[in-house]
Write a structure and sequence with these properties.
By secondary structure, the protein is an all-alpha fold. Helices cover about 75% and strands about 0% of the residues.
């Protein structure tokens, strides 16, 4: 199996940058555009940008034998997207990224229940330390605790469920097909809330909405290529650059400072993730 670490790392760094740009654009537009419209635009334009990839692969190759898993992955992933967009709007970007990064700690628990996969002791320690880091970032029981962060935790758990459903399809479905079906189903489902929340974006909004769809789709495709190019256990720690990108954008555009508890929580979350990936890399 191909294992080009440099290529995989570059793809992953670029993919996280694209997703951070998407998050920053969402935060900027959220003051003027309803979140339901933002989610719909992200899915619609994301689907539009994946169509050339599908056309290149051939339309006949879209035939699938596991539409039920695509449906689960799409609906659960869509709800997770609503949660993440909401958290981006109400929390500093770095904290929103950190809450999202709690998703890998839900993965083994969901895989244990759904796929009967065992959790080793090292992973259990990583999960415990990772959630401790999330608690440090959220600061429950203090005056600075923001309950909106709990929506982000819910979104992270749902995102993990969506990823486990992707794992169920991994041996039968190529990446572009999974992205395509998510685009179609999520666009149709996210159109429903527009019945009561639609507002026509102004002319100057459309280029930025297109940019959200483009950045999101490029991020998905780049991260897929990263894990195809290199050992996931070796390049996985680069995922945590999402926090660096988010903190930088938050500081430059919204003057968001990094407080001590966020820094400590970041170290715990990133340390736990790298610790777990190091163990997993031996068997991947």
């Amino acid at each position: 199996m191909k294992n080009n670490l440099l290529q995989g790392a570059v793809y992953l760094l670029a993919g996280e940058l694209m997703l951070a740009i998407m998050a920053a654009l969402i935060k900027a537009l959220s003051q003027e555009i309803a979140p339901e419209v933002l989610v719909f635009a992200r899915n619609l334009f994301g689907l539009m940008f994946i169509l050339p990839v599908v056309a290149h692969q051939g339309w006949r190759n879209l035939k699938t034998g596991c539409i039920h898993l695509h449906l689960v992955r799409s609906l659960v992933g869509l709800v997770a997207m609503y949660c993440y967009f909401y958290v981006i709007t109400h929390l500093p970007l770095a904290e929103a990224a950190l809450v999202k990064l709690s998703s890998p700690f839900f993965l083994p628990l969901i895989a244990m229940v759904w796929l009967n996969e065992r959790i080793d002791r090292r992973t259990m320690w990583a999960i415990a330390v990772g959630f401790l880091g999330v608690m440090v970032v959220l600061r429950p029981g203090t005056d600075t605790f923001q309950p909106v962060a709990l929506i982000g935790i819910l979104g992270a758990a749902l995102a993990s469920l969506a990823k486990v459903s992707i794992r169920r399809m991994a041996t039968r479905e190529p990446g572009y097909r999974i992205v395509f079906y998510f685009g179609v189903l999520a666009t149709l489902a996210s159109a429903i809330p527009l019945i009561w929340s639609w507002q026509m974006p102004q002319s100057h909004h459309w280029p930025w909405l297109l940019a959200i769809g483009l950045a999101g789709t490029c991020g998905q495709l780049l991260m897929t290529k990263a894990y195809q190019a290199a050992n996931p256990g070796k390049i996985g720690p680069y995922t945590y650059t999402a926090v660096i990108y988010a903190a930088l954008f938050g500081w430059v555009f919204w003057n968001e400072a990094i407080i001590l508890t966020t820094l400590i929580g970041s170290l715990l979350i990133i340390g736990a993730g790298v610790f777990n990936l190091k163990s997993g890399s031996k068997s991947i």
